[in-house]
Amino acid sequence: MSTGSNRLERRGAQRFEAHQPLAVHFDGRTVPGFVQDLSGRGIFFYAETALPQGAVVELTFTMPSEITLAENMLVRCRGRVLRASAAQAGHSQAGQRNGIAVQLDSYEYLPSGEPIAHFVRVSAASAAGTTPTPAPR
Fold this sequence. Notes:
By secondary structure, the protein is mostly beta strands. It is 6% helix and 44% strand. The chain contains two helices and six strands; from the N terminus they run ββββαββα. The protein has helices at residues 65-68, 124-127; strands at residues 16-26, 29-38, 42-47, 56-63, 73-85, 98-109. The protein has a six-stranded antiparallel barrel. A hairpin with a 2-residue loop joins strand 1 (16-26) and strand 2 (29-38). The longest helix has 4 residues, at 65-68.
């Protein structure tokens, strides 16, 4: 029995293409990535790092107006890696690019005008419920 054409759609929210850079904060380091598509509840992006399924990550990027229903806004999101796939052999350019799907658990709006690279990993205190602040320059 073939299930390819009768595949069940499991997404709970509409996805929007959003080809833009993002910063991935994981395991005490920050690596660049590139958004493929996103919704208010999830994101799929490419990065030159491998992330294990279940890993908790923070992502900093611009949330488009289609999702905020206002203007484009810089956000920092916390989420959990649902799946990750390595780049196919022979198709990497500057480095191996991995496709990563993350379920977004929470997010905060950040001040506009700050480049994404200036934001660093949120402290452990913010995970406990206190309000995180951007790192000093």
